[in-house]
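ok new one. same drill as before - structure tokens go in, u give me an amino acid for every spot. 171 of them this time. try not to just spam alanines like last time pls lmao
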């Protein structure tokens, strides 16, 4: 597809993020399964439901623009998920693995926040009000998820991961 104007670029980036969200619908259940902390597990499961709704929301965005909802492989998300999967397969302390799962999840959320932030800006500039509103809704969800992960890491998971290390030092 030729990128002749900002609208072309908007559609191209929407195809990328549609792929990213679809990849996450497949990857998040594995992340939830690998997590030990019940709060982390629950948080990931909740975000899976949100992610499924985000795919449907993106389909509405395409519809509002009169375009077909076609995904184009997001290589960045492939990479982020591949890195997250490596962590899941490692042996080790459960709390430490939970900390690693949060780190991987936050990389994903930050990628999404960057992408949706740009998409909202472009949609607004193009006067695509409906698309802008829908995309802003998802952006807010990604930001909230990122904040919840930070909170969980800061109040529990990182502390437990650090304790695991301390116990080992005592032996
Ligand atoms: Fe998402
Ligand atoms: Fe991408
Ligand atoms: Fe997300």
């Amino acid at each position: 597809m030729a990128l002749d104007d900002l609208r072309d670029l908007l559609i191209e980036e929407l195809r990328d993020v549609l792929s990213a969200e679809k990849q996450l619908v497949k990857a998040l259940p594995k992340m939830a399964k690998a997590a030990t902390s019940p709060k982390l597990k629950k948080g990931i499961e909740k975000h899976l439901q949100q992610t499924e709704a985000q795919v449907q929301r993106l389909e509405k965005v395409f519809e509002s623009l009169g375009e077909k909802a076609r995904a184009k492989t997001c290589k960045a998300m492939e990479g982020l998920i591949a890195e997250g999967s490596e962590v899941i397969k490692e042996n080790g302390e459960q709390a430490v693995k939970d900390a690693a799962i949060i780190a991987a999840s936050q990389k994903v959320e930050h990628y999404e926040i960057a992408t949706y932030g740009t998409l909202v800006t472009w949609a607004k500039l193009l006067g695509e009000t409906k698309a802008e509103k829908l995309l802003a809704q998802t952006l807010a969800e990604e930001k909230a998820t990122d904040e919840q992960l930070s909170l969980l890491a800061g109040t529990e998971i990182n502390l437990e991961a650090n304790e695991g290390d301390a116990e080992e030092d005592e032996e």
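Residues 16, 20, 74, 76-77 surround fe (iii) ion (ligand 2) (CB under 6 Å). and btw The chain has one domain: 6-165.
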